[in-house]
Amino acid sequence: MLTGKQKRFLRSLAHHLNPIFQVGKGGVNANMVKQIGEALEARELIKVSVLQNCEYSKDEVAEQLASGANAEVVQIIGNTIVLYKESVENKQIRLP
């Protein structure tokens, strides 16, 4: 689990990122979780936007993505979810 200080640090890093995935009407599927897992391995910190037509709440989507990709939800702001997962081979972010 991330501490408050670590989440604040990650939020500041995520501020400038653009969402690279969108969750729409179909919700979360296995293929999306796999792709998000790969993106997290490459980048460690990503944003996912939840579209208006999504049938699930953004909290449910965040929970599904985080548990499926074995990641941490840093923040849910508006319709955007910020996810973090420490990379195994491509570590770039040093947490405080």
Keywords for this entry:
96 residues; globular; 3 helices; 4-stranded mixed beta sheet
Give structural notes:
This protein is of the alpha+beta class and 96 residues long. It has a single domain, classed as 2-Layer Sandwich (Translation Initiation Factor IF3). Helices cover 39% and strands 21% of the residues. The protein has a four-stranded mixed sheet, with helices on both faces. Helix 2 crosses helix 3. The chain is globular. The chain starts with a helix and ends in a 12-residue tail after the last strand. Residues 1-96 form the CRM domain.
Provide a count of the helices: 3
The top-level CATH class is: Alpha Beta
Classify the helix fraction into a percent range. 25-40%
The proportion of strand residues reads: 15-25%
Give the full name of the CATH homologous superfamily.
Answer: YhbY-like
Cα-based radius of gyration, to the nearest Å:
12 Å
Structural class: alpha+beta
Which architecture per CATH?
2-Layer Sandwich
How many domains, in number, for the residues? 1
The major sheet is characterized as:
4 strands, mixed
Report how far apart the termini are: 13 Å
SSE string: HEHEHEE
